[in-house]
Amino acid sequence: MNTSRRSFAGIALGAIAGLALSTSTAWAQTKISFYYPVQVGGPLTQVIDGYVTKFKAANPGIDVEAVYSGNYIDTTTKALTAAKAGAPPTIAVLLATDIYTFLDEDVVVPFDGFIKTAADRAWLAGFMPAYLKSAQVGGKLWSIPFQRSTAVLYWNKKAFAESGLNPEKYPTTWDEMVAYGKAVMRKDASGKVTRWGVGIPGNVGSAQWLFGALVAQAGGRLFNENGTETYLTDPKVVEALQFWVDLNKVHGVHPPGIQEWGTTPADFLEGRIAMIWTTTGNLVNIRRNAQFDFGVAPYPGKVAPASVLGGGNFYIFAKATDAQKEAAFQFAKFMTQDELQADWNIQTGYVAPRDATWETAAMKKFVSEVPAAEVARKQIPNSVPEFSTYENGRTTKILNDAIGAALTGAKTPQRALADAQTEIDRILRPYRK
Amino acid sequence: MKAAEHRVTGIDATTLGAWLLALLWILPLLYALFAAFHPPEYATRFDLLAPITLDNFRRAWNAAPFARYFFNTFVLVTLILACQFVLCTLAAYAFVCFPFRGSEVIFMLVLIQLMIMPEALLIENYRTLSRLGLLDTTLAMGLPYLASAFGIFLFRQTFKTIPRELEEAAHLEGANALQVLLRVFVPLAKPIYVAYGLVAVSYHWNNFLWPLVVTNSVETRPITVGLQIFATVEQGIDWSLVTAATLLSVAPLLVAFLIFQRQFVQSFMRAGIR
Question: Is the dihedral of CA A318, A323, A328, A330 positive or negative?
Answer without folding.
Answer: positive
